[in-house]
Amino acid sequence: xxxxxxxGGGLVQPGGxxxxxxxASGSIFSLNAMAWYRQAPGNQRELVAAITSGGRPxxxxxxxxxxxISRDNAKKMVYLQMNSLKPEDTAVYYCTLKGYRxxxxxxxxxxxxx
Length: 114
Description:
mainly beta, globular
């Protein structure tokens, strides 16, 4: 049984930064890849960043160089540091654990606006 609890979303100005956090339960956490997805109104769900159990990251081209995904297996936490934010980053962001099935957080709203 896996539970994911997200925090850190909110309103930020263009060019600003925001850090999303995801707290995971379950003893299998350290063995699983994790990912952040986002979905904006009228758009398909988009994979933003992923990280393997060993800590290897991968990024969508749209966020490469601006976002950083990381994990702390001892704390069962996954983070998404978002820098140089743009209005087009506005979306609901979801934390996901990749396993025999995908587990999803509740989603947190990120709004980038002046």
